[in-house]
Amino acid sequence: MTDATFARTDAGLESVRAELRAREPIFHTAAFGRTRTEWDGAMLPEYWEVGASGRRYSRAWIFEMLEANPPVDANEAGWTMKDFAVRRLAGEMFLATYTLDQKGRITRRATIWQRNGSAWRIAYHQGTMVEAEEDDRLPEI
C-alpha cells in the first residue's frame, strides 16, 4: 500500500482541494490570514480544536496565543505536507487531511472546512503526533 492510498480525493473536488491546500496548515499561511481580523473571518464562531498534545482549545484561547506568539510561515520555515486529500462530508462541508513535517516533528492533520460562496471558514481542526510511519496502513475498503 502506498501513501497515495490515504490521499484519495473524491472525484470532482480538485478545485476544492487546490483552494484548501493553499490555506493549510491553518494559521501558518498568508491565504489563511495573518491578523486577528483575518483569522476571525476564517473561523466559524463555534470553532475549536484538539492539539497534538490531546488538549482541547477554544477559539478565544487560540486568539490569545496567536496574538502573544505570532505563527511562523510554513513555507518560510521549510515545513512540508504530503498526502493532502479532501472529502465532502455534507453539502458545503469538507474534510481536509494531510501529514505535516515541521522539520522532523510529524503530525497528521484534519480540518473541517465550510464553504459559503467563495469564502472558506474552519469549523474544527485536529493534529495528532506520529511516532512511527513504518506500518500505519489502513485496511482496504
Tell me what the structure shows.
By secondary structure, the protein is of the alpha+beta class. Helices cover 21% and strands 39% of the residues. The chain has four helices and six strands, in the order ααββααββββ. It starts with 13 loop residues before the first helix and ends in a 12-residue tail after the last strand. The model is unreliable at 1-5 (pLDDT under 50).
- Main β-sheet description: 6 strands, mixed
Strand order of the largest sheet: 2-1-6-5-4-3
Approximate shape: globular
Number of strands: 6
What is the ordering of alpha helices and beta strands? HHEEHHEEEE
- Terminal CA distance reads 12 Å
- Fraction in beta strands: 35-45%
Helix content: 10-25%
Question: What structural class do helix, strand and pairing data support?
Answer: alpha+beta
- Round the mean pLDDT to the nearest integer and report it: 89
Count of helical segments?
Answer: 4
Low-confidence runs (pLDDT<50, min 5 residues)? 1-5
List the quaternary state of the chains. Answer: single chain
Radius of gyration, in Å, reads 15 Å
Q: What is the gist of this entry?
A:
It is built from four helices and six strands; from the N terminus they run ααββααββββ. It is of the alpha+beta class.
